[in-house]
Design brief:
2 copies of one chain form a homodimer. Chain A is mainly α. Chain A is built from 7 helices and 3 strands. In chain A, strands 1-3-2 form a 3-stranded antiparallel sheet. Chain A binds a DNA duplex through helix 4.
Chain lengths: ~170, ~170
DNA sequence: ATAAACTTTCAATAATTATTGAAAGTTTAG
DNA sequence: CTAAACTTTCAATAATTATTGAAAGTTTAT
């Protein structure tokens, strides 16, 4: 496999994987492109490489910046803006985990909390609703805590965690 | 909040959350409904409760069965089929984690493996592609391993894991 | 101040994904 | 065997989500 083919394969796979970590295709592809680029890319570069429109590029770059994954770079002597992504995979994972916790998991925990604390009217179905949503809340809480703990261990968190869990 | 309101809130929240664990809205809502039901439900019951068509119900029930989350129940004296879902949240999480690993993570690891082992032609961009996709492969491998380890600890895996990681 | 270089916005459109409903298929009771 | 009860399939349609492109907005150089 040659460079160009490998690159395209990587960018498109990462793109379709976007949904797995909760972002859209173009957004994931732009990030993938920046991730393997040896230098900052301009909007033109990105549009060209991915064959997507200016508007699309602009909107998705903004989202990536909102996530804190991509940053603007000023290149001296150039008028246009350039972009780079976080290059360290562990830091990247940390950012993604934090954002997903904040955007998706926390709000769900809140709803589960509300639903699981309704008044017990003594009926079987109410008891079941309370019991099951409470269990789900505990699980979600635990997973969220675990994820945040994993991600907050600065150095080599993953390796360390895998090691600890093997004991 | 009364039972009916709480139930609807739970079902719709869990439904829109579906995307987070990689399934569609109707599928997640059906599972949510079964999860808080005190008895097996028929297709009619589900259609009625969620106001969705017979076809939709049938297709999504099949998918839930493919995932191994929902099972058919035979109710004596009844001709139609009834359905139940796994009621234990930890077992549920275990099934979901296993399936997502198999369906989504493993295939990505395979692509990363392919891309990260292309021939190094000595150019900077090829070196960067190899380096970055290799790092991503390691991360993904580690996360997958971690997830499977977590999930294979039979009793109280989550609580135990959280405890271990606090040390 | 103004024009060129660039970015953002957003209504229109395209692409994708989910849902319906009726016909075809299957199972069971008599 | 046949009709009723039930489930599945799938082409058509609806709903949702992503993308375009051109106009409006912003910044910078002169």
């Amino acid at each position: 496999m040659e460079y160009q083919e490998a690159k395209e394969k990587f960018v498109s796979t990462w793109g379709s994987l976007g949904t797995l970590w909760g972002i859209n295709k173009a957004m994931a592809q732009i990030q993938a492109l920046l991730f393997i680029s040896t230098k900052p890319l301009s909007m033109e570069d990105i549009m060209e490489e991915l064959k997507i429109s200016r508007g699309n590029t602009s909107m998705n770059l903004r989202q990536l910046m909102d996530w804190g994954i991509v940053t603007k770079e000023i290149v001296r002597g150039e008028r246009k803006e350039f972009f780079t992504t976080e290059k360290d995979v562990q830091e990247l994972a940390r950012i993604v985990a934090k954002e997903r916790s904040r955007r998706e998991i926390k709000p769900v925990i809140k709803v589960l909390e509300e639903v699981s604390t309704i008044k017990d009217d003594g009926t079987e179905k109410t008891k079941e609703l309370i019991k099951q949503t409470r269990a789900l809340k505990h699980l979600t809480d635990d997973l969220d805590t675990l994820m945040n703990k994993l991600v907050n261990q600065k150095q080599n968190w993953l390796t360390k965690s895998v090691f600890k869990l093997m004991k």
